[in-house]
Sequence to fold (816 residues):
Amino acid sequence: MASARNLAEPIKGRLDVDGRLVSADPLLLRLHLHSGGFEGGPLAIPQLANLCRLSRKLGMNLSRSVKAADDDNSLNLWVETRIEHGSDGGLSISIVDWKETPLSRNDNDDEQRQRDFDRLNARGMIRTDTALRITSISLPGKVRLSENSIGNALLDVFAVVKPSKPTLFTESIAERQPVRNHHVSLLLEPGSKYILSGQPLVDNLGVYSGYRFSVEKLNDESSDSGNPDSAKPSLISDSLFGAQLGPALRQPLGKIIANAETIGSQLEGPLRGDYASYAKDIAAAGRHLMDLVNDLSDLEAIERPEFTVAPDEIDLIDLAHRASGLLTVKAADHQIRVDLPDENDEMPAWGEFRRVLQILVNLLGNAIRYSPDGSVIKIRVDHNGDRTEISVSDQGDGIPKDDQHKIFDKFERLGRSGDGGSGLGLFISRRLAKAMDGSLTVKSAKGKGATFTLSLPSRTKKGSE
Amino acid sequence: MEKRDFSAVENDRFDLAKKAGEYGVSSAFLTSDLSNALFPESGLYLSDRLLSNSQQYLRSMIGEIESQLCLKATENLGIVHASIDEIGNGSMVYCYDHLRNAGLLNKSELLEHVFVQAQKVELTNRLLQKFSQEDLENSLASHLDHEDKNIAEAAMALLVSRNRSGFQIGQISCRLSNVPVEIYHDLVWSVTAAVQKISGCSEPKLLSAAELVLAEHDESQSSDNRAQRLAGLLDHAEASAAIPHPIKDGLELFLAHIALRSQLSANQLVIFTAEPNMARLVVVMRALGITENDALSIFTALDGSGNILTPASYKEISREQAIVMTDNWSKPTALQTAERKLSSNQPEIDG
Fold:
């Protein structure tokens, strides 16, 4: 909200012959200091300094509007300069109006933001001239294409494909109308699919000067969704969250986490201590949101009736080491040691590699989260009939018997909050285990830690078949 | 001060041989004058009245400066010199022809300022044909009671400045405080050189007099400056600022409001009003989201050629396109000139 200081008296300042601010009322002095100046130093408010220089150069008194910025405000000042004749060649400044307006983003910022979002969403950009020849093109991962396309007609590089109609596209272009969500394919890569949207441009004479298009790659899931024959088992749902919201959230979240960690680690220069701490909070919150997004995507996927997993030949000891490797830093933060089976042994089983790893990371992550600092987490493997089992045991507070059946429910947190969990991990893990013809169980007693056991169908070792 | 004669009538004694010599030089430019008259490049129609007003304004400006300079020299700095005294108190304009012949008046910033002043007189005359001076001033006077004393004070300053300017139908004269400082600075030194030449006075005090004239120039007294300040205060004070209108606000305040909101300069807007159908002004109004009724009313108030703006033709202009165009016109002039010259589709236009 804009605000104005009603100045009963103008704000005064005085510069000496060398342009140094030798006296100033408090508001002017504060602005000077905030602009990087120092007491008795050259006037540091850029536009005001320019006005004073012009006044001195012309030897004339000026009265003009001056813009400045202070913290989060844009300042509109009305300034009068007065040459002091007969003294030491000084110049007096009189600010008669002082208006503050919260800083707003300008169009260039918005354009930059739009480009950032385009990049985050893997969107490309194409500029054309009036004849629809490409004058600049940027498609993620298509550098060579970008180089070879400039100068070619847009429709020599892309073809409009179903369900969009080529005639509708060309008619819209001919009428200089915006075009939205046309499906196109790269002529050099017939299988590729993109969504093309564009706006006509006008130059500074008001004349049509071409188009600016944004290009978004259509991923396989969504492009095939209308074709039941091409439906194949997919771990990520093609529904709203999995295919659309999930990726849209993951990309900006990834950027937030990366930037916050860069700031927090002070890699690009020193920072006030509390700011670095805030940046780490932002990164932690970002990671929590990212986990939640991943969990919700998985949840949506596993609740679909057609959800299946692909059975791979897996080795549970290898997977245990991989899961532990992923959480090494987190465990080290709490001085927790993970006791693993011998890396040279093997414990073959059937299960989908990625999903079993996901379950183990969830179990180990929970164990680290709920174990006291300096404790030990044990991962053990064993055979049980035609099943192969891997267990993760911690030395935490344990889970009361009455609560043990609840922890596999959706969003069940047993009253805990603020520890970074979403309440979905164990629910998803158990559903995944069942999908792999396995099970996930817990044994625990209050105060005696907990042991989670994943059981999967056994597989005979290679070479012993 | 004695009334001065700013007319274009030659006052020199008629000397046929001298004139013959002068025409021998000047006739070399015959073809370029004819070329400019036959093939104007700007697309603006410069009426005889506007040309006459422009010349009158320019002579008035030179006359006022030379008079001030010489009076300062004689009265404040004690120069005793018959010619300086005559120029200071005389009724003629002495330096104009010298400056014109030397090409010192043929500068784009100066000529643009002169054109804008002449066009503003034209616009004021158009408004006064439709509404009385009293009506035009009533709205401005209403700001005198504004609760914000800065606004009241700025409105008073503008009212005073406008009354001092004293535009009257058929007359134009220069008030030096309305001359932009950069142009004024340049002109004062040009006039000083001309006075030195005419009078033969080489006293350093004449230069000191020029410095005094410059130092006493007060930009804050200019009507445009005061209108700009008042527009800024009003726009800031009233979140849902009313639509500016030349009848309601007066010409200067109207221009200052539109300039502030469009990021254009008031001079640009005045030039827009001289263009055929005021096309660019219409586009600016569209960009600012002025409704068709208000736009039509503003157009009618400023128009002097019987042109009509219809609601359909106004609404036909795409708002998005109007915003882009207005934004482009608000770029620095040097950038626009360079872009125009670099544009391969456009013929090169000088100036």
Observations:
- Chain A has a mean pLDDT of 78.
- The interface with chain B takes residues 2, 4, 6-7, 54, 58-65, 76, 78, 80, 83, 85, 96-97, 99, 101, 107, 201-207 of chain A (CB under 8 Å).
- The longest helix of chain A spans residues 273-302.
